[in-house]
Amino acid sequence: MTAALVGDELGPRGRRRVLVASVVAAVVLGALAAVALRRFAARGQLDAELWSILVDPGVVRFLLGGLGNTLKVAAAGMVGAVVLGAVMALGRLSRHRPLRWLAGTYVEFFRGFPLLLLILFLAFGLPRLGIRWPLFWYLVLGLAIYNSAVLAEIFRAGILSLDRGQSEAALAVGLTVGQAMLLVILPQALRRMAPAIVGQLVVLNKDTSLGYFVQYEELLRRAQITGTFDGNTLQALLAAAAVYIAVNLVLSRVARRLEVRQRRRYGGAIVVAGGPEDLVAVETVAAKPR
Amino acid sequence: MDVVLDNLDRFAEGVATTASLTVLSWLGAFVIGVAVASFRVGPILPLRAAGTVYVELIRNCPLTVLFVVFFFGFPSIGILVESEFISAILVLSVYTGAFVAETVRAGVNTVAPGQVEAARSLGLGFNQVLGLVVLPQALRSVIGPLGSLFSALIRNSSIAYVIGLVELTGTAFQLSVESAQFVPVFTGAALAYLALTLPTGLVVGVLERRLAIRR
Questions:
Q1: What is the average pLDDT value for chain B, to the nearest integer?
Q2: Over the stretch A33-86, which tens digit does the pLDDT of each residue have?
Q3: Residues of A with CB below 8 A from B34's CB?
Q4: Is residue B113 scored above 60 in pLDDT?
Q5: Distance, in angstroms, between B66 CA and closest chain A CA?
Q6: DSSP per residue, B122-185
Q7: Residues in chain A within 8 Å Cβ distance of B113
Q8: B contacts of A112 (beta carbons < 8 Å)
Protein backbone atom coordinates (compact mmCIF):
# COMPACT_ATOMS: atom_id res chain seq x y z
CA MET A 1 0.00 0.00 0.00
CA THR A 2 1.17 3.49 -0.73
CA ALA A 3 1.14 6.06 2.01
CA ALA A 4 -2.00 8.12 2.28
CA LEU A 5 -1.90 11.18 0.12
CA VAL A 6 -2.43 13.57 3.00
CA GLY A 7 1.12 13.69 4.22
CA ASP A 8 0.84 15.99 7.20
CA GLU A 9 -0.41 15.01 10.62
CA LEU A 10 -4.13 15.56 10.91
CA GLY A 11 -5.52 17.80 13.58
CA PRO A 12 -8.17 16.65 16.07
CA ARG A 13 -11.02 17.59 13.75
CA GLY A 14 -9.44 15.85 10.77
CA ARG A 15 -8.79 12.73 12.81
CA ARG A 16 -12.39 12.68 13.97
CA ARG A 17 -13.66 13.01 10.42
CA VAL A 18 -11.43 10.20 9.19
CA LEU A 19 -12.65 8.03 12.06
CA VAL A 20 -16.31 8.73 11.28
CA ALA A 21 -15.76 8.09 7.58
CA SER A 22 -13.93 4.85 8.36
CA VAL A 23 -16.77 3.60 10.53
CA VAL A 24 -19.35 4.54 7.90
CA ALA A 25 -17.30 2.86 5.15
CA ALA A 26 -16.85 -0.28 7.24
CA VAL A 27 -20.59 -0.45 7.93
CA VAL A 28 -21.45 0.03 4.24
CA LEU A 29 -18.93 -2.58 3.09
CA GLY A 30 -20.13 -4.98 5.79
CA ALA A 31 -23.73 -4.43 4.70
CA LEU A 32 -22.78 -5.17 1.08
CA ALA A 33 -21.08 -8.40 2.13
CA ALA A 34 -24.14 -9.33 4.21
CA VAL A 35 -26.47 -8.70 1.25
CA ALA A 36 -24.26 -10.89 -0.94
CA LEU A 37 -24.20 -13.69 1.62
CA ARG A 38 -27.97 -13.48 2.06
CA ARG A 39 -28.41 -13.78 -1.67
CA PHE A 40 -26.37 -16.97 -1.57
CA ALA A 41 -28.27 -18.27 1.44
CA ALA A 42 -31.72 -17.38 0.14
CA ARG A 43 -31.16 -19.41 -3.01
CA GLY A 44 -29.70 -22.31 -1.09
CA GLN A 45 -26.27 -21.71 -2.61
CA LEU A 46 -24.55 -21.92 0.78
CA ASP A 47 -25.81 -25.48 1.35
CA ALA A 48 -22.95 -27.56 2.64
CA GLU A 49 -23.41 -30.32 0.11
CA LEU A 50 -23.02 -28.03 -2.89
CA TRP A 51 -19.61 -27.04 -1.56
CA SER A 52 -18.58 -30.36 -0.06
CA ILE A 53 -18.83 -32.13 -3.42
CA LEU A 54 -15.85 -30.02 -4.37
CA VAL A 55 -13.63 -31.86 -1.90
CA ASP A 56 -14.85 -35.29 -2.99
CA PRO A 57 -11.68 -37.19 -3.97
CA GLY A 58 -12.93 -37.92 -7.48
CA VAL A 59 -13.86 -34.31 -8.13
CA VAL A 60 -10.60 -33.05 -6.65
CA ARG A 61 -8.64 -35.40 -8.88
CA PHE A 62 -10.64 -34.26 -11.91
CA LEU A 63 -10.09 -30.56 -11.14
CA LEU A 64 -6.42 -31.04 -10.28
CA GLY A 65 -6.07 -32.78 -13.63
CA GLY A 66 -7.56 -29.64 -15.18
CA LEU A 67 -5.06 -27.48 -13.30
CA GLY A 68 -2.32 -29.83 -14.50
CA ASN A 69 -3.46 -29.33 -18.10
CA THR A 70 -3.53 -25.57 -17.56
CA LEU A 71 0.01 -25.56 -16.20
CA LYS A 72 1.24 -27.88 -18.95
CA VAL A 73 -0.11 -25.57 -21.64
CA ALA A 74 1.37 -22.57 -19.84
CA ALA A 75 4.79 -24.21 -19.50
CA ALA A 76 4.95 -25.40 -23.10
CA GLY A 77 3.64 -22.04 -24.31
CA MET A 78 6.26 -20.20 -22.29
CA VAL A 79 9.10 -22.32 -23.65
CA GLY A 80 7.89 -21.73 -27.20
CA ALA A 81 7.39 -18.02 -26.54
CA VAL A 82 10.88 -17.62 -25.09
CA VAL A 83 12.52 -19.35 -28.07
CA LEU A 84 10.44 -17.50 -30.69
CA GLY A 85 10.75 -14.25 -28.78
CA ALA A 86 14.54 -14.54 -28.60
CA VAL A 87 14.71 -15.16 -32.35
CA MET A 88 12.49 -12.14 -33.03
CA ALA A 89 14.45 -9.90 -30.65
CA LEU A 90 17.72 -10.86 -32.32
CA GLY A 91 16.04 -10.26 -35.67
CA ARG A 92 14.98 -6.77 -34.61
CA LEU A 93 18.53 -6.01 -33.50
CA SER A 94 20.12 -7.57 -36.58
CA ARG A 95 22.50 -5.69 -38.83
CA HIS A 96 20.51 -6.78 -41.87
CA ARG A 97 17.61 -4.56 -42.76
CA PRO A 98 15.27 -7.24 -44.21
CA LEU A 99 15.62 -9.28 -41.00
CA ARG A 100 14.88 -6.23 -38.88
CA TRP A 101 11.86 -5.45 -40.99
CA LEU A 102 10.51 -9.01 -40.90
CA ALA A 103 10.88 -9.35 -37.15
CA GLY A 104 9.41 -5.89 -36.61
CA THR A 105 6.34 -6.73 -38.68
CA TYR A 106 5.87 -10.00 -36.81
CA VAL A 107 6.03 -8.29 -33.43
CA GLU A 108 3.72 -5.41 -34.36
CA PHE A 109 1.21 -7.69 -36.07
CA PHE A 110 0.80 -10.25 -33.31
CA ARG A 111 0.86 -7.73 -30.47
CA GLY A 112 -2.22 -6.05 -31.85
CA PHE A 113 -4.07 -9.27 -32.65
CA PRO A 114 -6.64 -10.68 -30.22
CA LEU A 115 -5.22 -13.95 -28.93
CA LEU A 116 -8.66 -15.55 -29.04
CA LEU A 117 -8.92 -14.94 -32.78
CA LEU A 118 -5.50 -16.49 -33.28
CA ILE A 119 -6.37 -19.58 -31.24
CA LEU A 120 -9.71 -20.05 -33.02
CA PHE A 121 -7.93 -19.73 -36.33
CA LEU A 122 -5.30 -22.31 -35.38
CA ALA A 123 -7.70 -24.80 -33.81
CA PHE A 124 -10.34 -24.66 -36.54
CA GLY A 125 -8.44 -23.37 -39.55
CA LEU A 126 -5.33 -25.56 -39.47
CA PRO A 127 -7.28 -28.86 -39.58
CA ARG A 128 -8.97 -27.59 -42.77
CA LEU A 129 -5.55 -27.01 -44.23
CA GLY A 130 -4.66 -30.59 -43.44
CA ILE A 131 -2.66 -29.96 -40.27
CA ARG A 132 -4.19 -32.13 -37.56
CA TRP A 133 -2.73 -32.02 -34.07
CA PRO A 134 -4.08 -32.67 -30.61
CA LEU A 135 -5.91 -29.59 -29.24
CA PHE A 136 -3.08 -29.07 -26.79
CA TRP A 137 -0.67 -28.05 -29.53
CA TYR A 138 -2.96 -25.50 -31.19
CA LEU A 139 -3.32 -23.81 -27.84
CA VAL A 140 0.41 -23.92 -27.15
CA LEU A 141 1.19 -22.54 -30.60
CA GLY A 142 -1.26 -19.66 -30.18
CA LEU A 143 0.09 -18.74 -26.74
CA ALA A 144 3.68 -19.07 -27.96
CA ILE A 145 3.15 -16.82 -31.00
CA TYR A 146 1.31 -14.09 -29.13
CA ASN A 147 3.62 -14.03 -26.11
CA SER A 148 6.75 -14.27 -28.24
CA ALA A 149 5.81 -10.89 -29.72
CA VAL A 150 5.60 -9.47 -26.21
CA LEU A 151 8.76 -11.18 -24.99
CA ALA A 152 10.67 -10.01 -28.06
CA GLU A 153 10.04 -6.44 -26.92
CA ILE A 154 11.16 -7.28 -23.39
CA PHE A 155 14.32 -8.98 -24.67
CA ARG A 156 15.08 -6.08 -26.94
CA ALA A 157 14.69 -3.56 -24.16
CA GLY A 158 16.91 -5.68 -21.91
CA ILE A 159 19.66 -5.94 -24.49
CA LEU A 160 19.49 -2.25 -25.36
CA SER A 161 19.61 -1.33 -21.67
CA LEU A 162 23.20 -2.54 -21.43
CA ASP A 163 25.94 -0.02 -21.83
CA ARG A 164 27.41 0.04 -25.36
CA GLY A 165 30.82 -0.42 -23.78
CA GLN A 166 29.94 -4.02 -22.97
CA SER A 167 29.59 -5.12 -26.59
CA GLU A 168 32.42 -2.85 -27.71
CA ALA A 169 34.76 -4.36 -25.13
CA ALA A 170 33.68 -7.88 -26.06
CA LEU A 171 34.35 -7.23 -29.75
CA ALA A 172 37.64 -5.53 -28.91
CA VAL A 173 39.00 -8.61 -27.15
CA GLY A 174 38.31 -10.57 -30.34
CA LEU A 175 34.94 -12.22 -29.72
CA THR A 176 32.66 -12.61 -32.71
CA VAL A 177 29.29 -10.87 -32.66
CA GLY A 178 27.62 -14.18 -31.75
CA GLN A 179 30.05 -14.91 -28.94
CA ALA A 180 29.72 -11.40 -27.58
CA MET A 181 25.94 -11.78 -27.50
CA LEU A 182 26.02 -15.21 -25.91
CA LEU A 183 28.84 -14.75 -23.40
CA VAL A 184 28.69 -11.09 -22.48
CA ILE A 185 25.42 -9.41 -23.39
CA LEU A 186 22.77 -12.05 -22.73
CA PRO A 187 23.94 -13.17 -19.27
CA GLN A 188 23.74 -9.59 -18.06
CA ALA A 189 20.60 -8.66 -19.97
CA LEU A 190 18.70 -11.75 -18.80
CA ARG A 191 19.05 -10.72 -15.16
CA ARG A 192 17.62 -7.33 -15.90
CA MET A 193 14.68 -8.88 -17.70
CA ALA A 194 13.86 -11.51 -15.08
CA PRO A 195 11.03 -9.57 -13.38
CA ALA A 196 9.41 -8.68 -16.70
CA ILE A 197 9.61 -12.29 -17.89
CA VAL A 198 7.98 -13.65 -14.73
CA GLY A 199 5.35 -10.93 -15.05
CA GLN A 200 4.60 -12.10 -18.56
CA LEU A 201 4.19 -15.62 -17.21
CA VAL A 202 1.20 -14.38 -15.20
CA VAL A 203 -0.38 -13.03 -18.38
CA LEU A 204 0.31 -16.27 -20.20
CA ASN A 205 -1.10 -18.32 -17.35
CA LYS A 206 -4.30 -16.28 -17.45
CA ASP A 207 -4.56 -16.70 -21.20
CA THR A 208 -4.54 -20.50 -20.96
CA SER A 209 -8.19 -20.16 -19.99
CA LEU A 210 -8.86 -19.38 -23.65
CA GLY A 211 -8.54 -23.15 -24.08
CA TYR A 212 -12.14 -23.12 -22.82
CA PHE A 213 -13.27 -21.89 -26.25
CA VAL A 214 -11.79 -24.86 -28.10
CA GLN A 215 -13.05 -27.43 -25.59
CA TYR A 216 -9.60 -28.13 -24.23
CA GLU A 217 -10.03 -29.57 -20.74
CA GLU A 218 -8.14 -27.01 -18.72
CA LEU A 219 -9.20 -25.92 -15.26
CA LEU A 220 -12.11 -23.67 -16.28
CA ARG A 221 -13.64 -26.19 -18.68
CA ARG A 222 -13.35 -28.98 -16.13
CA ALA A 223 -14.88 -26.79 -13.43
CA GLN A 224 -17.86 -26.22 -15.67
CA ILE A 225 -18.15 -29.93 -16.45
CA THR A 226 -18.12 -30.72 -12.72
CA GLY A 227 -20.67 -28.01 -12.05
CA THR A 228 -23.06 -29.25 -14.72
CA PHE A 229 -22.68 -32.82 -13.51
CA ASP A 230 -23.15 -32.13 -9.79
CA GLY A 231 -25.53 -29.18 -10.13
CA ASN A 232 -23.14 -26.76 -8.42
CA THR A 233 -21.93 -24.66 -11.35
CA LEU A 234 -21.49 -21.50 -9.28
CA GLN A 235 -19.46 -23.23 -6.58
CA ALA A 236 -17.24 -25.10 -9.03
CA LEU A 237 -16.56 -21.96 -11.06
CA LEU A 238 -15.76 -19.92 -7.95
CA ALA A 239 -13.37 -22.65 -6.83
CA ALA A 240 -11.64 -22.53 -10.22
CA ALA A 241 -11.40 -18.75 -10.02
CA ALA A 242 -9.84 -19.04 -6.55
CA VAL A 243 -7.22 -21.47 -7.86
CA TYR A 244 -6.33 -19.19 -10.79
CA ILE A 245 -6.05 -16.21 -8.45
CA ALA A 246 -3.89 -18.14 -5.97
CA VAL A 247 -1.44 -19.36 -8.62
CA ASN A 248 -1.17 -15.94 -10.24
CA LEU A 249 -0.85 -14.11 -6.93
CA VAL A 250 2.17 -16.25 -6.11
CA LEU A 251 3.71 -15.56 -9.52
CA SER A 252 2.99 -11.83 -9.21
CA ARG A 253 4.66 -11.78 -5.80
CA VAL A 254 7.73 -13.52 -7.23
CA ALA A 255 7.89 -10.97 -10.04
CA ARG A 256 7.60 -8.07 -7.61
CA ARG A 257 10.24 -9.49 -5.29
CA LEU A 258 12.62 -10.03 -8.21
CA GLU A 259 12.01 -6.46 -9.31
CA VAL A 260 12.83 -5.05 -5.87
CA ARG A 261 15.96 -7.17 -5.63
CA GLN A 262 17.20 -6.25 -9.10
CA ARG A 263 16.56 -2.58 -8.46
CA ARG A 264 18.67 -2.75 -5.33
CA ARG A 265 21.41 -4.70 -7.00
CA TYR A 266 21.67 -2.90 -10.33
CA GLY A 267 20.75 0.56 -9.18
CA GLY A 268 17.52 0.59 -11.13
CA ALA A 269 18.70 -0.51 -14.57
CA ILE A 270 16.07 -3.16 -15.09
CA VAL A 271 13.39 -3.82 -17.64
CA VAL A 272 9.83 -3.29 -16.53
CA ALA A 273 7.05 -4.69 -18.64
CA GLY A 274 3.52 -3.50 -18.70
CA GLY A 275 2.28 -2.85 -15.27
CA PRO A 276 -1.21 -3.05 -16.73
CA GLU A 277 -1.61 -6.54 -18.16
CA ASP A 278 -0.70 -7.53 -21.67
CA LEU A 279 -0.27 -4.04 -22.93
CA VAL A 280 3.42 -4.33 -23.54
CA ALA A 281 4.58 -0.97 -22.36
CA VAL A 282 8.12 -2.17 -22.02
CA GLU A 283 10.49 0.35 -20.58
CA THR A 284 13.89 0.35 -19.06
CA VAL A 285 14.19 2.10 -15.77
CA ALA A 286 17.17 4.35 -16.11
CA ALA A 287 20.14 3.38 -14.02
CA LYS A 288 20.94 5.77 -11.24
CA PRO A 289 24.62 6.59 -11.09
CA ARG A 290 26.13 4.45 -8.40
CA MET B 1 -10.80 -12.35 -50.49
CA ASP B 2 -14.26 -12.69 -52.07
CA VAL B 3 -15.75 -13.98 -48.83
CA VAL B 4 -14.69 -10.83 -47.05
CA LEU B 5 -15.84 -8.47 -49.78
CA ASP B 6 -19.20 -10.22 -50.12
CA ASN B 7 -19.78 -9.98 -46.39
CA LEU B 8 -18.54 -6.48 -45.75
CA ASP B 9 -21.85 -5.56 -44.12
CA ARG B 10 -21.46 -8.32 -41.51
CA PHE B 11 -17.89 -7.28 -40.88
CA ALA B 12 -19.00 -3.68 -40.46
CA GLU B 13 -21.61 -4.82 -37.96
CA GLY B 14 -18.96 -6.75 -36.04
CA VAL B 15 -16.64 -3.76 -36.01
CA ALA B 16 -19.47 -1.53 -34.79
CA THR B 17 -20.30 -3.96 -31.96
CA THR B 18 -16.66 -4.24 -30.92
CA ALA B 19 -16.22 -0.46 -31.05
CA SER B 20 -19.32 0.37 -29.03
CA LEU B 21 -18.57 -2.41 -26.54
CA THR B 22 -15.06 -1.05 -26.09
CA VAL B 23 -16.08 2.57 -25.65
CA LEU B 24 -18.90 1.85 -23.19
CA SER B 25 -16.76 -0.58 -21.17
CA TRP B 26 -13.98 2.00 -21.11
CA LEU B 27 -16.31 4.59 -19.59
CA GLY B 28 -17.27 2.12 -16.87
CA ALA B 29 -13.68 1.04 -16.31
CA PHE B 30 -12.50 4.64 -16.08
CA VAL B 31 -15.08 5.57 -13.45
CA ILE B 32 -14.32 2.42 -11.43
CA GLY B 33 -10.58 2.86 -11.84
CA VAL B 34 -10.45 6.49 -10.73
CA ALA B 35 -12.76 5.78 -7.78
CA VAL B 36 -10.72 2.77 -6.63
CA ALA B 37 -7.44 4.63 -7.09
CA SER B 38 -8.84 7.46 -4.94
CA PHE B 39 -9.85 4.94 -2.28
CA ARG B 40 -6.37 3.47 -2.27
CA VAL B 41 -4.56 6.76 -1.75
CA GLY B 42 -7.08 8.09 0.75
CA PRO B 43 -6.91 8.03 4.56
CA ILE B 44 -9.96 5.80 5.10
CA LEU B 45 -8.69 2.36 5.98
CA PRO B 46 -11.70 0.16 5.06
CA LEU B 47 -11.86 1.74 1.60
CA ARG B 48 -8.11 1.30 1.09
CA ALA B 49 -8.41 -2.36 2.03
CA ALA B 50 -11.43 -2.91 -0.20
CA GLY B 51 -9.62 -1.25 -3.11
CA THR B 52 -6.57 -3.45 -2.64
CA VAL B 53 -8.64 -6.63 -2.47
CA TYR B 54 -10.57 -5.68 -5.61
CA VAL B 55 -7.46 -4.90 -7.62
CA GLU B 56 -5.49 -7.97 -6.54
CA LEU B 57 -8.39 -10.40 -7.08
CA ILE B 58 -9.47 -9.09 -10.46
CA ARG B 59 -5.98 -8.58 -11.85
CA ASN B 60 -5.01 -12.18 -11.16
CA CYS B 61 -8.21 -13.73 -12.47
CA PRO B 62 -8.47 -14.55 -16.20
CA LEU B 63 -11.09 -12.51 -18.05
CA THR B 64 -12.63 -15.69 -19.47
CA VAL B 65 -13.23 -16.93 -15.92
CA LEU B 66 -14.96 -13.67 -14.98
CA PHE B 67 -17.22 -13.96 -18.02
CA VAL B 68 -18.10 -17.58 -17.31
CA VAL B 69 -18.73 -16.98 -13.60
CA PHE B 70 -20.94 -13.98 -14.34
CA PHE B 71 -22.91 -15.59 -17.13
CA PHE B 72 -23.20 -19.22 -16.00
CA GLY B 73 -22.67 -18.94 -12.24
CA PHE B 74 -24.44 -15.79 -11.10
CA PRO B 75 -27.92 -16.73 -12.34
CA SER B 76 -28.11 -19.27 -9.53
CA ILE B 77 -27.97 -16.42 -7.00
CA GLY B 78 -30.56 -14.51 -8.96
CA ILE B 79 -28.24 -12.19 -10.86
CA LEU B 80 -29.29 -12.57 -14.45
CA VAL B 81 -28.71 -9.93 -17.09
CA GLU B 82 -30.71 -10.82 -20.18
CA SER B 83 -28.68 -8.81 -22.66
CA GLU B 84 -25.30 -10.25 -23.64
CA PHE B 85 -24.18 -6.77 -24.60
CA ILE B 86 -24.86 -5.30 -21.17
CA SER B 87 -23.35 -8.34 -19.45
CA ALA B 88 -20.21 -7.90 -21.50
CA ILE B 89 -20.00 -4.19 -20.64
CA LEU B 90 -20.33 -4.99 -16.92
CA VAL B 91 -17.66 -7.71 -16.94
CA LEU B 92 -15.22 -5.77 -19.12
CA SER B 93 -15.66 -2.65 -16.99
CA VAL B 94 -14.99 -4.50 -13.76
CA TYR B 95 -11.97 -6.27 -15.26
CA THR B 96 -10.38 -3.25 -16.95
CA GLY B 97 -11.25 -1.06 -13.96
CA ALA B 98 -8.68 -2.91 -11.85
CA PHE B 99 -5.95 -2.11 -14.36
CA VAL B 100 -7.07 1.50 -14.72
CA ALA B 101 -6.94 1.81 -10.92
CA GLU B 102 -3.36 0.56 -10.83
CA THR B 103 -2.34 2.89 -13.64
CA VAL B 104 -3.97 5.94 -12.06
CA ARG B 105 -2.35 5.10 -8.73
CA ALA B 106 1.02 4.92 -10.47
CA GLY B 107 0.22 8.36 -11.90
CA VAL B 108 -0.62 9.71 -8.44
CA ASN B 109 2.78 8.54 -7.27
CA THR B 110 4.47 10.68 -9.94
CA VAL B 111 2.92 13.89 -8.59
CA ALA B 112 5.53 15.76 -6.57
CA PRO B 113 4.87 15.84 -2.80
CA GLY B 114 5.28 19.61 -2.89
CA GLN B 115 2.05 19.84 -4.89
CA VAL B 116 0.10 18.21 -2.08
CA GLU B 117 1.84 20.26 0.57
CA ALA B 118 1.16 23.49 -1.31
CA ALA B 119 -2.48 22.57 -1.76
CA ARG B 120 -2.81 21.64 1.90
CA SER B 121 -1.24 24.86 3.05
CA LEU B 122 -3.76 26.77 0.95
CA GLY B 123 -6.39 25.13 3.10
CA LEU B 124 -7.77 22.59 0.63
CA GLY B 125 -9.35 19.47 2.10
CA PHE B 126 -8.53 15.93 0.98
CA ASN B 127 -11.19 15.76 -1.71
CA GLN B 128 -10.12 19.12 -3.11
CA VAL B 129 -6.43 18.19 -3.02
CA LEU B 130 -7.20 14.97 -4.87
CA GLY B 131 -9.77 16.27 -7.33
CA LEU B 132 -8.33 19.68 -8.15
CA VAL B 133 -4.58 19.22 -7.80
CA VAL B 134 -3.42 15.61 -7.80
CA LEU B 135 -5.73 13.73 -10.18
CA PRO B 136 -5.50 16.22 -13.09
CA GLN B 137 -1.71 15.95 -13.02
CA ALA B 138 -1.74 12.20 -12.37
CA LEU B 139 -4.05 11.48 -15.31
CA ARG B 140 -2.01 13.62 -17.67
CA SER B 141 1.13 11.71 -16.80
CA VAL B 142 -0.39 8.29 -17.56
CA ILE B 143 -2.12 9.01 -20.87
CA GLY B 144 0.26 6.63 -22.68
CA PRO B 145 -0.37 3.64 -20.39
CA LEU B 146 -4.11 4.37 -20.37
CA GLY B 147 -4.03 4.33 -24.17
CA SER B 148 -2.35 0.92 -24.14
CA LEU B 149 -5.05 -0.27 -21.77
CA PHE B 150 -7.65 0.96 -24.23
CA SER B 151 -6.06 -1.07 -27.05
CA ALA B 152 -5.88 -4.07 -24.73
CA LEU B 153 -9.60 -3.58 -24.09
CA ILE B 154 -10.31 -3.65 -27.83
CA ARG B 155 -8.58 -7.01 -28.00
CA ASN B 156 -10.07 -8.29 -24.74
CA SER B 157 -13.60 -7.47 -25.88
CA SER B 158 -13.28 -10.47 -28.21
CA ILE B 159 -13.62 -12.73 -25.17
CA ALA B 160 -17.24 -11.60 -24.87
CA TYR B 161 -17.83 -14.22 -27.55
CA VAL B 162 -17.85 -16.78 -24.73
CA ILE B 163 -21.28 -15.55 -23.63
CA GLY B 164 -22.54 -15.52 -27.19
CA LEU B 165 -22.02 -11.87 -28.06
CA VAL B 166 -21.13 -11.84 -31.73
CA GLU B 167 -18.67 -8.99 -32.19
CA LEU B 168 -15.78 -8.86 -34.62
CA THR B 169 -14.10 -12.10 -33.53
CA GLY B 170 -17.43 -13.90 -33.36
CA THR B 171 -18.41 -12.63 -36.81
CA ALA B 172 -15.10 -13.76 -38.26
CA PHE B 173 -15.38 -17.17 -36.65
CA GLN B 174 -18.95 -17.78 -37.83
CA LEU B 175 -18.16 -16.56 -41.31
CA SER B 176 -15.09 -18.76 -41.59
CA VAL B 177 -17.04 -21.83 -40.47
CA GLU B 178 -19.87 -21.09 -42.92
CA SER B 179 -17.57 -20.43 -45.86
CA ALA B 180 -14.81 -22.87 -44.86
CA GLN B 181 -12.36 -20.20 -45.92
CA PHE B 182 -10.33 -19.54 -42.84
CA VAL B 183 -7.32 -17.69 -44.17
CA PRO B 184 -9.08 -14.82 -45.99
CA VAL B 185 -11.68 -14.33 -43.27
CA PHE B 186 -9.13 -14.22 -40.47
CA THR B 187 -6.89 -11.90 -42.46
CA GLY B 188 -9.88 -9.62 -42.91
CA ALA B 189 -10.59 -9.70 -39.19
CA ALA B 190 -6.95 -8.99 -38.40
CA LEU B 191 -7.03 -5.94 -40.69
CA ALA B 192 -10.27 -4.79 -39.07
CA TYR B 193 -8.66 -5.00 -35.61
CA LEU B 194 -5.67 -3.08 -36.92
CA ALA B 195 -8.08 -0.46 -38.27
CA LEU B 196 -9.39 -0.08 -34.70
CA THR B 197 -6.11 -0.16 -32.78
CA LEU B 198 -3.90 1.95 -35.07
CA PRO B 199 -6.03 5.12 -34.92
CA THR B 200 -6.22 4.64 -31.14
CA GLY B 201 -2.44 4.66 -30.98
CA LEU B 202 -2.28 7.81 -33.10
CA VAL B 203 -4.88 9.66 -31.04
CA VAL B 204 -3.14 8.67 -27.80
CA GLY B 205 0.18 9.86 -29.21
CA VAL B 206 -1.30 13.26 -30.07
CA LEU B 207 -3.02 13.59 -26.70
CA GLU B 208 0.16 12.63 -24.91
CA ARG B 209 2.17 15.29 -26.72
CA ARG B 210 -0.50 17.94 -26.16
CA LEU B 211 -1.16 17.24 -22.51
CA ALA B 212 2.14 15.95 -21.19
CA ILE B 213 3.49 17.91 -18.27
CA ARG B 214 6.94 19.18 -19.02
CA ARG B 215 9.08 19.31 -15.96
A1: 91
A2: 999 999 888 888 888 888 888 888 889 999 999 999 999 999 999 999 999 999
A3: none
A4: yes
A5: 8
A6: TT--HHHIIIIIIHHHHHHHTHHHHHHHHHHHHHHGGGGGGGT---HHHHHHHHHHHH--HHHH
A7: 7
A8: 151, 155, 193-194, 197-198
